[in-house]
Amino acid sequence: MSYSMEETRALLERVERVFGPAPSEGTRSRSPLSSTSAAPSNSCQSPTHLLNVVGGSASKSYTESWIKNSSSQNKMNETYCYEISQNEKIIDKNQELVHTLKIQIQTLEEHGDSPALIDSKRNEMLLYQKKIDDAEAALINRGPCPIETCTKHHETTKDASMEVESGQYANSYSDFKQVSPKKAAKIRNDVTKSPIKPQINSMSSLILTKINP
C-alpha cells in the first residue's frame, strides 16, 4: 500500500507527537536509563538507605551502651549484696559477744568481784553494741538487696512444698462427679421381683401334697 507525500508527512507528524522526535546521530538519547551511570554514587542513594545506615549505627551504639551499663549495674548490685552480708555478719558476731559479756558481768556482780573489772566489761560491751548500731544503720541506709533472686536476703513468696500441696489436685478430674440430690439415684419400690422364688414355693407345695394326700 503506497502513501502520497502529504499522507507520509502527516503520519510522521503524528508519530512525533506521540513518541517525540527521533534522536539524531551524535546526540544523547532521551531515555532515562541511559542518563544514569551504572554505579550510583553515595549522593544518589535513597533516603531510606541512608536512614538505615544511620539507624543501624545508632542501634549498635545503643546496644553496646546498654550492655556496658547493665554489666556495671550488675557489678554494683553484687557489691551491695556483699556489703549487706558483711553487715549482717558483724551484727551476728557482736550480738554473741554482747550476750557473753552480759553473762560475765552478771556473774561478777553476784560474786562481788572488783567494780573496775565489771566496768571494763561494760565498756567492752558498749563497743560491741556500737558496732551493732553502726551495722544496722548501714543496712537501713543501703536498703534491701537489689538482686531480687538473692535467696540470702529475699524470702520466696511461696514455699514449693506448699504450692504442690495446695495445687496438686487443682486440675485433676475425678471419675466420680458429685450430682445434685434431685439427680441422685433413689431406691425404687416397683422393682420387679425375681420369679424364681415363687416357682420354688409352688413346687414345694406340690411335693408336700403328693406326700401327704
UniProtKB/TrEMBL annotation:
Residues 17-49 are annotated as: Disordered. It comes from Araneus ventricosus. The lineage of its organism: Eukaryota, Metazoa, Ecdysozoa, Arthropoda, Chelicerata. Residues 29-49 have a biased composition (Polar residues). Residues 91-138 form a coiled coil. It comes from the Eukaryota. Keywords: Coiled coil. This is Uncharacterized protein.
